[in-house]
Amino acid sequence: MKNNIIKILFTFGLILVLIGCNDSANEDDDFPSEDITVIVPNDAGGGTDITARGLVEQTKDDLDTDIIVENKPEGSGVAGLTEGAETDPDGYTLTMATVELGIYPNLNRMPIDYQDFSPIVTAIADPASLIVPADAPYDTLEEFIDYAKEHPNLKVGNSGVGSIWHLAAAAIEDEFDLSFNHIPYDEGSAPAVSALAGGHVDAITVAPGNAKSQIDDGEFKVLGIMSDERLDSFEDVPTFEEEVGMDFTVQAWATLVAPKDTPDEIIDKLSDAFTDTVQSSEFKEYMANQGIDSVEYGPEESKEMMEEDHELFKDLVKKLDIEE
């Protein structure tokens, strides 16, 4: 009698487990059944926001649901990134994670890092560049470096202490044993571009697309790009590696992510849909019209990039002694 009761209870429990598994599978099959929210940890109008809005606009029909963008730039993006990591892992709240996810944890500014997310797709990985006035007394990276050695404390503008563009300038400084006077503009790259136009700084390290209009108008010149290869939109500008042998990539990426522990089936469905978008000619044209070179990194490539940058900035922050 006792054995029969145990068998009945075991069988009943097994049935409940199977029902639960089937319900879970059905939920994943029905995904998405409601609106999706994408947190952008930046102000509206910037490169990350522009990229996110293009992504969702061209993907919502494929997923057959509305996708709502919410800008949450508080704390230089810390609030938005943290909220995105701590939301339910059900695929209905995604985050446009930025390169600061690799920087801020190493500066002790944020309690999370890339391991708290599951990447879906990367649509932008904008490399840093060294930009100077058109009438500057140097036309190449080599000439700039020689000039900087003879004239220490050149004013180099960036988007704030510990920002991606500050670290780009610091990496150049460290690589070639230079001494810059770093001028931070906490509001982002736009004030740094304006400062260069106004003659308040000697150079800036930002993405070339951030100063595209001034470059196109002949007001600025780009001496080098900190990427593995030349950009299609600036094909005449050499990389740092080919010009001065600096094998060092610094890029401002934006990766669409979900919280860790989001079911693989949901990640796969989202990745398929958003990857189709970033590979489309319509999206590439949209990005090109914004002066942004798009990329097409899937989940694995995105994860590898995020991990590598985390370690890169960990070492650089320690070397530069800017940990907070």
Description of the molecule:
This protein has 12 helices and 11 strands. The protein has 324 residues and is of the alpha/beta class. The protein has a 6-stranded mixed sheet, with helices on both faces. Strands 7-6-8-5-9 form a 5-stranded mixed sheet, sandwiched between helices. The protein folds into 2 domains: 35-123 and 253-296, Bordetella uptake gene, domain 1 (D-Maltodextrin-Binding Protein, domain 2), CATH 3.40.190.150; 129-244, D-Maltodextrin-Binding Protein, domain 2 (3-Layer(aba) Sandwich), CATH 3.40.190.10. The termini are far apart.
Question: At CATH's second level, what is the architecture of the largest domain?
Answer: 3-Layer(aba) Sandwich
What is the C-alpha radius of gyration, as a whole number of Å? 23 Å
Give me the CATH superfamily of the largest domain.
Answer: Bordetella uptake gene, domain 1
Q: What fraction, in percent, of the residue positions are helical?
A: 40-55%
For the report, how would you describe the main beta sheet?
A: 6 strands, mixed
Q: What count of helical segments does DSSP give?
A: 12
